[in-house]
Amino acid sequence: MATEYVKFVDVTKCDGCRACMVACKNWNDLPAEPQDFLGSAQSHTKTTADTWNVLQYIEHENSKGGLDYLFRHSACFHCTDAACEKVCPEDAISYTDFGTVVIDHEKCVGCGYCVNNCPFEVISLKEYVDKNGDKYRKANKCTMCTDRLEEGLQPACVTTCHTGAMQFGDKAAMIQKAEERVKQIKDRYPNAMVYNPQGVSGTHTVYVLAEKPSVYGLPENPKVPTSAVVWKDYAQPIGKMMIGATTMAVVGAFITNTIISKKKNGKNEDGGEHHE
């Protein structure tokens, strides 16, 4: 089995250069996506189907009354218990041995359930046009460069980060580094914390945040929606069992009716004459 990995993002080391965004675009061959001027250095309001990671710029008044300019590399969290995987009716979303969550475009039907249920709002639908001119949609998001991981490489965004704000490695080692980093910066950032939400059984993008999650537009305690749990863990399996039972009942009824019909027509099951 492959090693389970974590991308560790220390927002206190980020200088907002956006090299991670450029590297992601280049490696994944994502098209440019012109945006209206937002009145700040931030280029996009959030991730989209063609922009899988976004650098957030946040002006925040700290507890001492001073102004902090906060940055955050925003991309898919690759939840251990992913709501998107649970709600996908086509089993198009799955986990890899690395801990990443990926979308199979061959199976995706563009229903949008994953978009509506992601607690971090990082999945989007992209519209395509086939050779006949018909439009169809597919879900898109960060893959954590799973194709690079399979070749023993690190995610493109990590390799281009010149400040060391992003590291990538064994899950336990990265989480330990995050916890140690929080201890180092507590004097400067009293609200500093490791963001690895347990409501989704932990994530494979773990942050050291300088402030509370809400300051960065993140949910304080994200959880897999109850409806998703009911659907994936209860309704779907029961539904499949019922479909299986129904199929068996139909087959059984067909066989029984066939035998009765043959007997009525004076034939044995083997095709011979039936005698009373």
Automatic annotation (TrEMBL):
Keywords: 4Fe-4S, Iron, Iron-sulfur, Metal-binding, Repeat. The keyword Repeat applies. The keyword Transcription does not apply. Transmembrane segments: none annotated. This is 4Fe-4S dicluster domain-containing protein. It holds the Pfam family Fer4_11. It comes from the Bacteria. Residues 5-35, 67-98, 99-128 form the 4Fe-4S ferredoxin-type domain. It is found in: Cell envelope.
